[in-house]
Hints:
5-stranded parallel beta sheet
Amino acid sequence: MKRTAIYPGSFDPLTNGHLDVIQRAAKLFDRVIVAVAENESKHPLFTLAERLALVKKAVAHLPPVATDSFDGLLVEYAAARQAGTIVRGLRAVSDFEFEFQLALMNRKLDENIETIFMMPKDTYTFLSSRIVKEIARLGGDVRPFVPAHVSAALQKKLKPARPRGARI
Ligand code: ADP
């Protein structure tokens, strides 16, 4: 039987930290589905379609990795995709409490689905989508932290609007 894992998240946008976790998971499972959560309540910077497209491009070279989006209960989505494992990334102790709570709640909801945690390369432990957006917003260079196409998308999204009446 094929072993399938789901790696869920907002991916607003995907960072090199996410990619590191995806690459590690791809070595352990026959199929890894990166599942982009709709998460409208979090007011994402990128639309669901944009986040999905950015992930898709980043994982195109990894054959076991597929992309999808989902809304609603993660365990229900995982069961529907016949995935027995949920992968989450752990950056630091600060992630632990929330992730622990989430994993135990998901186990209560469906005992057949296990959550596993993967630690990224140490250089990515400080990386988050939130920090990357903040740096980009302030005009900083995010190229060391995200794939090139994500950096370009951030620049495009956050480009300051041209003042009214300004000449091209
Ligand atoms: P969510 O909104 O579900 O937290 P994120 O896109 O922020 O979605 O993160 C998805 C998963 O990836 C989470 O488990 C998060 O802890 C993990 N993650 C985020 N950034 C990193 C990183 N730099 N290294 C390892 N894991 C990460």
